[in-house]
Specification:
7-stranded mixed β-sheet, globular, 2 domains, 14 helices, binds nicotinamide-adenine-dinucleotide, 494 residues, alpha/beta, single chain, Aldehyde Dehydrogenase, Chain A, domain 1, Aldehyde Dehydrogenase, Chain A, domain 2, 6-stranded mixed β-sheet
């Protein structure tokens, strides 16, 4: 299905205390990557407006904290049903602003709904516990909300990445401040409307449109106790430093340079599809996209795999199978990166620079899948996050050489191996310097209840952003020790 791009300019507003209202700052335009048309505009949120929205959220949060989790969960259940009812409409909107194709837009929302279902299940999971620790004395722990929490999100998943945290944070009793990417603010209004319709009390979900200044005002507000962030490494580090310097807990997920290790014994069909789809899906604009292919073994044994990957990537039609790049500046950056790799000695097996824009979308931001062979370890194409449909092949003698290259990159999001040998797969799993590893899976995103998060320069802070390992970030653990009756055998707990 082709993406329905809005034919008018949408006024992207803040959502504060249950109402849509305009920001009071700089005006920012939103352009569709598909055809360059102006699909939205908004006014950023200045510090005074941010402060007021957060003050109001704090008042709402105090009441929400006293609502039993079972009742909070009912709102989340309604929210789920509304998202499922409106899925196609939301998918079209998020695609039109982020450049994804329709299926990718829908898949992102479905993954977001899985997180929502995990949050709905929290009411029946281990969210506390009590043990008699000595005669007449019991200890228990209770999960309590942190208070007002904030989340800052990137352009590439306008619904899924926010949905990683919204349902969990709200179900645990927090108020939630969301600053969407200034490139993709349209989807945030749909999510806000859905939460309002679901019955979420006013003030618990405040959406503040803006960019750097708005983010800084949010982090600086003393009532914001926890800050989640997903975006590039440079900004993740800046957000982490600013938040932690103010004594807050911060979990900031950054960029990536993901490797796939391809062994000669891999299933050719699985490898061809899995590797090609990993670097071309979402036009390479996802933090789990493969970016470097470490081909182990001699050329004769691995050639069939390379041919399959090239054939699959070559067959993709721009505009339907593969979407657009977020900005024209990013297309220029990607084309220059290909040129630099070529100048440094890489052989171009598939050249996306020559791709033709789909009919009627000539003003959009297009580049085709690109496969670079014989890339040198340590070169820019091998180490820098490009964030486009480009994969760099590095030839390796054995797994040890491949993993030495993988380990040398500063990022640590994902690494996959394609093989039919379990022992070799296990070797890669153990040696990978990443938070997430895949075996015969090109995009190894953990599914609920398993949590999402990298290591090294792909994550600043402790814990993960979704799943079981996110609960301690979005809540506080209160430890309670209780004795009701005096005991005869007094001990140190008396
Ligand atoms: P970005 O870092 O440019 O922007 C992310 C957010 O930070 C946006 O909301 C933006 O408004 C805000 N921001 C921008 N400059 C800021 C500043 N100086 N101070 C404070 N906030 C600022 O990222 P992007 O281009 O929107 O997204 C792509 C990047 O996100 C890629 O690097 C990708 O790998 C990464 N990403 C990572 C994950 C992950 O889970 N690790 C997931 C998705 C995307």
């Amino acid at each position: 299905m082709s993406v329905k791009i809005p034919n008018k300019t949408i006024n992207c507003q803040n959502f504060i205390n249950g109402e849509f209202t305009n920001g009071d700052g700089e005006k920012i335009k939103v352009v569709s990557p598909f055809n360059g048309s102006l699909i939205g505009e908004f006014s950023s949120s200045n510090r005074n407006l941010v402060n007021k929205a957060i003050d109001d959220a704090q008042i709402a949060q105090r009441l929400w904290a006293d609502v039993p989790m079972k009742e909070r969960t009912k709102v989340m259940f309604n929210f789920r049903n509304i998202l499922i009812r409106d899925m196609d409409e939301i998918a079209h909107l998020k695609c039109s602003e982020s450049g994804k194709n329709f299926d990718e837009g829908k898949a992102g929302l479905i993954k977001g709904i899985e997180v929502l279902e995990f949050a709905i299940a929290l009411q029946n999971m281990d969210i506390g516990g009590r043990v008699e620790v000595s005669r007449g004395v019991s200890c228990e722990y209770r999960r309590e909300p942190v208070g007002v929490v904030a989340n800052i999100t990137p352009f590439n998943f306008p619904a899924m990445v926010p949905m990683w945290t919204i349902p969990i944070a709200l179900t645990l009793g927090n108020a939630y401040i969301w600053k969407p990417s200034e490139k993709t603010p349209l989807t945030s209004m749909k999510i806000a409307s859905a939460l309002k319709e679901a019955g979420l009390p006013n003030g618990l979900f405040q959406v503040l449109q803006g960019s750097k200044d708005t983010v800084e005002a949010i982090i600086d507000h003393p009532s914001v106790k926890a800050v989640g962030f997903v975006g590039s490494t440079k900004i993740a580090k800046a957000v982490y430093d600013r938040g932690t310097a103010a004594g807050k807990r911060v979990l900031a997920l950054g960029g990536a340079k993901n490797h796939i290790v391809l062994l000669p014994d891999a299933n050719p069909e699985m490898a061809g599809v899995g590797i090609s789809d990993s670097f071309t899906g979402c036009a390479g604009q996802r933090c789990m996209a493969a970016s470097v292919l470490l081909v182990v073994g001699n050329a004769k044994d691995t050639e069939k795999h390379i041919e399959n990957i090239v054939a699959r990537a070559r067959s993709l039609k721009l505009g339907s199978d593969m979407g657009a790049i977020i900005t024209k500046a990013q297309v220029t950056f990607l084309k220059e990166a290909i040129g630099k790799a070529e100048a440094a000695g890489a052989k171009i097996l598939l050249d996306g620079r020559k791709a033709v824009a789909p009919a009627g979308m000539e003003e959009g931001n297009w580049i085709g899948p690109t496969i670079l062979d014989n890339v040198q370890p340590g070169s820019e194409a091998a180490t820098i996050e490009l964030f486009g449909p480009i994969i760099s092949i590095i030839r390796c003698i054995d797994i040890s050489e491949a993993m030495k290259i993988e380990n040398s990159v500063t990022y640590g999001n994902a690494c996959s191996v394609f093989t039919s040998n379990g022992a070799l797969a296990e070797k890669v799993i153990k040696m990978a310097s990443t938070g997430m590893v895949g075996v015969n899976v090109g995009v190894p995103v953990p599914r609920e209840p398993f949590s999402f998060g990298g290591v090294n320069a792909s994550k600043f802070g402790h814990g993960d952003i979704t799943g079981q390992h996110s609960l301690d970030f979005w809540s506080n653990i209160k430890k309670v020790t209780v004795k009701w009756e005096k005991q005869n055998d007094n001990n140190w707990m008396s």
